[in-house]
Amino acid sequence: LQTLVYGRDRIRFMESLVVGDIAELKPGQGTLTLLTNEKGGITDDLIVTNTSPLSPWQDRAAQLQATGSDVHLEVSDNALLALQGSPSMARVLQAGLSDDLAKLSFMNSIATTVFGVPGCRVTRCGYTGEDGVEISVPAARAVELAEQLLGVPDVWLAGLAARDSLRLEAGLCLYGNDIDETVTPAEAGLMWTLGKRRRVAMDFPGAAVIMAQVKEKPRRRPAATAWTGAGQAPLTSPCPHMPGTVTSGCPSPCLGKNIAMGYVEAAHSRAGTELTVEVRKKQHPAVITKMPFVPTQYYMAK
Question: Which residues hold substrate (predicted)?
Fold first, then answer.
């Protein structure tokens, strides 16, 4: 879902919903941020971009409007195409752009025409850990643009399994698996999404719970490990007091072995800690490792 939020109070509206510092975003700049509830749980993750106007929460907008605030929502009839992979992505896309892609850094965007299709917004980001872009394109011309891109020999269709293996290799969370309303940003290792000003102001949903966890240290922490199974499974060890859970797992095409991420008790989350993974009632030895499994390739303009 792609939505524009505009009006004089658009920043106040967005910051009443998410943990990021939206006021700090420069024109064309975006940030990954989190929607949280009053208990500190993560209700979703999203990218907010300062296009000048951005997002979908009708009830909160209506509340602000009722108090005389100026905020309006407009759901865009756009599709989203992701073109990922270095160095081919930049070479392929540049052929269809008049803008200089070399000047576009990670998490920045431009409004432009792509291969003759106007009304697009190209954001240098993605869910793969690789250099890539996401192209917001008017829905009526999305298939046309996709077919033009697929006409280039270096471009192939990729399904969810390919995307999921890449995002896991990059150590990126999947909502519904690794994060949900029972997990806070502090527990998920996502405190970097909280703006410094927002931490001080504590004016986002669940701030009291989340900041208390930061001060006291969360009881569970994210953990990454290589193992011989896939899917969700319990993490155990020779010590029965170290329970944990695998939340995502799959074979890694880049590493040639299976990888997983999940949660363990904070006291046992250090890299190098030995544990076992239970897969179909069989125990497999594993060691906690650092994330990402594969170094990311995010592009920063020089």
Answer: 134
Name the nearest CA neighbour of 111 among 95, 124, 125, 122. 122
Tokens of 250: 């799959």
Q: Where are the domains of the chain?
A: 78-152, 219-291
38 is in an annotated binding site: no
Q: Which of 182, 246, 190 is nearest to 214 (CA)?
A: 190
Superfamily per CATH, domain 219-291: Aminomethyltransferase beta-barrel domains (2.40.30.110)
- Report how far Cα 166 is from the mean position of its chain's Cα atoms: 13
Nearest by Cα to 222 from 288, 130, 128, 277: 288
- Per-10-residue mean pLDDT of the chain, 302 residues long, equals 88 96 95 98 97 55 74 86 96 98 98 97 98 98 98 96 96 97 98 97 98 95 74 54 81 90 90 84 85 97 92
Q: Is the dihedral of CA 52, 55, 58, 61 positive or negative?
A: negative
